[in-house]
Design goal:
Elements (H helix, E strand, L loop, with lengths): L5 H5 L3 E5 L4 H13 L4 E6 L7 H9 L5 H7 L2 H7 L1 E5 L14 E4 L10 H26 L4 E5 L10 E3 L10 H19 L2 H14 L5 H30 L5 H18 L11 E7 L1 E3 L17 H8 L16 E3 H12 L9 E5 L9 H14 L20 H23 L5 H31 L3 E3 L2 H9 L2 H6 L9 H30 L23 E4 L10 H9 L5 H24 L1 H9 L7 H19 L2 H12 L3 E9 L12 E5 L1 E3 L5 E5 L7 H14 L7 E4 L5 H5 L3 E5 L3 H10 L2 E3 L17
């Protein structure tokens, strides 16, 4: 190779980088700015929302990892002015590139293993093709060659076995046919998703689940399920097509197709707009993990391939793994990857001859799953995660029973969970049921995690590949001693137990431990477990802006009661002993039909209860509430609920009670609320209750509609407002505002709240509160 250090060979050149906001691209930019001072860089960064690409780049350079470079340059603006120019745009619409570029390093791309098939082709194939077309325009304008460095993956080898050479992937797939097919799948799947069979299935399922909340809630759930089906189907189709052609998944398949685009471009295939062979290199890293040394030991951005599994194991949630103990897992630190990229950048191949470089470890310094497991276990033995009050998390002992055994174990656990979940869905409401639902929810999330990663990683865990890196090492050996130190990418020097125990595991667990500490502090600092209430000055009510409201349900939320119980509070007061027994027997005989009515329609259930007030004088009901029930109602109020209401009032919020209870029963609560919206009993000209309501009861979706109307009338910001309710029938109420809280929820609402990451409060009944059916009796 030509003499000269890497810095000398790249001195005075201009390189364009893509993907600098990603893990590899950020590390590459840092290395170039640190150790290749004469190389001028431009970065292709897409705007995000209203944030320009230049602003995103400035934000990137404000990260601690760039602090020394920024300080030496005299600030972010100075660094960008002198060495980091920004080209606004992205691969979906590649802009014109600077005409004087000497090289392009393409790090951007879809790194998800299971993208929807059309997205995989769009990013990994169309994006590459469009970028190369822009490079051709720059070549034409400048009259000089441009070295294109394409960052791929070693796993384009797919389902092959044995030694994988640094060479083109051997396949005869028709690129254009597969590309047209992949891009057309979204339209085809969207059309299928609107077929009557699928919609009928999802609609019936949603209406059964959300019948108490309302048909529009069920309709929204149906549409959400349809969209999820489209996404899942596009992933499934991509995976199946990839495997049918010999690749592990859609990611490796489309990355291989992207390589074929590069190979044809470099060889100047017939039909190309610009003539002449081109200069291209393809770099194929294996599994990229935290830095061994640079920018600093253990540096990593976000979670990569191994981190979710390591963290799950440390928490005792990964009981087995579908790999053989002697199977090689090919991992490479990110600083080795970007050092190799810079080395390749400084040593372009001859035009028309693509250079291939594996950046991997398995061929010369193999890491087996058994070594990985024992190293990670050693780390967590020394530095365990805590499992709440139970102390250190218990670590599973892997026996590596094989992929089939792991699949059987998981399938059996999933079937058992479904049975338990069905039973829990029909369990009566209680604190015990809620606690069981919480544990079942956690177990379900663990099973979902295991299923996702088993499906994703099964192919990689059972792959028997050894990526030859002879050409990469030939490049490394050609470097000067100084460059081999500065741009180190000889993976044979890595001590794997040291790397995992002292470098990688501490790096990936540190942010999780900090988050656990913050959660523990928050849990200790607030007895309710709820986030604090923002004052009017902090919220949207400041400066004449819309005000904030807090909407509260009553029965089951503020106090432990229901409409049957409150009816008996009023009715039994005026009856003697024999009559009380007769009334209790009569109401008890109606309970089964009332329960069935509530499951069908909350409105019909309330109407059935309120018919029992026929013949009562409304003024007498008010008097009973004022004279006999006030103390009892107040004694039944949850102290946590009262504190929360007072917090809202102290914060300057508008407090609203919205309930299906009859208005007389809400009279004791008037001092706590700015407005009470309750059920009004219809009366005749004498003030006698007719057994009907003055208007339809506010339940389900009608509550949300009333809230929106009330908010518009009173200038309330619904997104800044709060809502508190306990029943799945109140789902529309909670979805209508920005800060929903499920209070001692029934099981369906609890499940939804967990999925939606809502606050869940357990407002206990007051100590010593009586639950008699005749509180007014002396």
């Amino acid at each position: 190779m030509t003499e000269g250090s890497i810095a000398q060979r790249l001195d005075g050149q201009h390189v364009l980088l893509t993907g600098v906001t990603g893990f590899v691209g950020e590390a590459l930019l840092h290395l170039i700015l640190s150790d290749v001072p004469g190389l001028r860089t431009s970065v292709l960064v897409r705007p995000k929302g209203s944030t320009r690409g230049a602003d995103r780049t400035a934000k990137l350079l404000e990260k601690p990892v760039f602090a020394d470079l920024v300080e030496a340059a005299g600030g972010v603006e100075a660094l960008m002015r002198d060495r980091v120019a920004v080209v606004e745009g992205d691969l979906a619409d590649v802009p014109e590139l600077p005409a004087d570029i000497d090289a392009v390093v393409h790090c951007a791309g879809d790194v998800s293993f299971d993208p929807p098939v059309d997205e995989g082709f769009t990013t990994n194939v169309i994006g590459v093709r469009d970028l190369l077309a822009r490079i051709d325009q720059a070549r034409e304008a400048s009259g000089k060659d441009v070295h294109y460095v394409h960052i791929s993956t070693a796993y384009v080898a797919g389902r092959r076995r044995g030694s994988i050479p640094e060479a083109p992937v051997d396949h005869d797939v028709d690129l254009e046919t597969e590309l047209a097919w992949g891009l057309g799948q979204r339209r085809a799947v969207e059309d299928r998703s609107r077929g009557a069979d699928l919609l009928t299935k999802e609609r019936k399922k949603a209406e059964k689940e959300h019948s108490r909340a309302g048909l529009l809630t069920a309709a929204r759930a149906t549409e959400a399920a349809r969209k999820q089906w489209v996404k899942d189907e596009l992933v499934r189709i991509g995976t199946e097509r990839a495997r049918s052609l010999g690749w592990t998944d859609c990611y490796t398949f489309t990355k291989a197709m992207g390589e074929r685009v590069v190979e044809r471009w470099a060889a100047d295939s017939p039909g190309s707009e610009y003539s002449g062979p081109r200069t291209a290199s393809i770099v194929r890293p294996s599994i990229i993990e935290s830095a061994l040394e640079k920018p600093h030991i253990g540096w990593i951005e976000g979670f990569k391939m191994a981190e979710p599994l390591i963290l799950a194991y440390g928490r005792g949630e990964l009981p087995e793994f579908p790999a053989s103990p002697d199977t090689i897992v090919d991992i490479v630190p990110v600083d080795h990857v970007v050092a190799a990229i810079v080395g390749v950048l400084a040593h372009p191949p001859r035009p028309g001859e693509v250079g291939y470089f594996h950046v991997s470890s398995g061929d010369r310094n193999p890491l087996t799953f058994n070594t990985l497991y024992s190293s990670v276990r050693t780390y967590f033995d020394r530095h365990p995660f805590t499992a709440g009050d139970r102390g250190a998390a218990r670590l599973p002992e892997w026996r590596f029973p094989g992929a089939r055994s792991v699949e059987r174990l998981l399938s059996t656990s999933e079937k058992a969970w479904k049975v338990a979940d069905y039973a829990m869905g029909h369990a009566p409401r209680s604190d015990r049921a809620r606690e069981l639902a919480r544990k079942l929810h956690q177990q379900g999330r663990r099973l979902e995690f295991l299923r996702r990663y088993l499906d994703l990683y099964m192919e990689y865990a059972t792959a028997e590949l050894r990526f030859s890196d002879k050409q990469t090492m030939a490049l490394f050996d050609s470097l000067s001693e100084e460059d081999r130190s500065t741009f180190a990418f000889d993976t044979s020097v890595i001590d794997w137990p040291h790397y995992f125990i002292e470098v990688h595991c501490p790096a990936v667990t540190a942010p999780v431990r900090r988050l656990d500490e913050l959660r523990a502090l928050r849990k200790r600092s607030t007895s309710s477990g709820l986030r604090g209430v923002k004052t009017a000055a902090e919220g949207s009510a400041a400066g004449g802006a819309p005000q904030v409201a807090a909407f509260f349900d009553m029965d089951g939320t503020l106090l432990s009661s229901n409409v049957i119980e409150t009816y008996l509070w009023v009715r039994l007061r005026e009856l003697d002993g024999t009559e009380r027994l007769a009334e209790l027997s009569r109401i008890a005989s109606k309970v089964p039909s009332l329960v069935q009515a509530e499951r069908r329609s909350r409105s019909d259930f309330l109407r059935g209860i309120y018919r029992e007030y026929q013949g009562a004088r409304l003024a007498d009901l008010n008097a009973v509430a004022d004279d006999f029930l006030t103390d009892h109602v107040l004694s039944r109020l949850s102290p946590d609920a009262v504190r929360r209401i007072r917090e809202h009032r102290a914060a300057g919020h508008h407090t609203v009670l919205i309930t299906g209870a009859i208005r007389p029963l809400t009279r004791p609560l008037r001092p706590l609320f700015d407005h009470i919206e309750a059920a009004d009993l219809a009366v005749d000209s004498r003030g006698i209750c007719t057994g009907h309501l003055a208007s339809s009861p506010l339940v389900g979706e009608s509550r949300a509609a009333w809230m929106r109307s009330y908010a518009a009338e009173h200038g309330i910001d619904m997104q800044a407002s709060y809502g508190y309710a306990d029943s799945h029938s109140d789902l529309p109420l909670l979805e209508a505002i920005g800060n929903p809280v499920a209070v001692r929820p029934d099981i369906p609402l609890y499940r939804h709240a967990r999925r939606a990451h809502w606050d869940v409060a357990d407002w206990a009944s007051p100590t010593g509160a009586t639950r008699g059916l005749d509180p007014a009796r002396r």
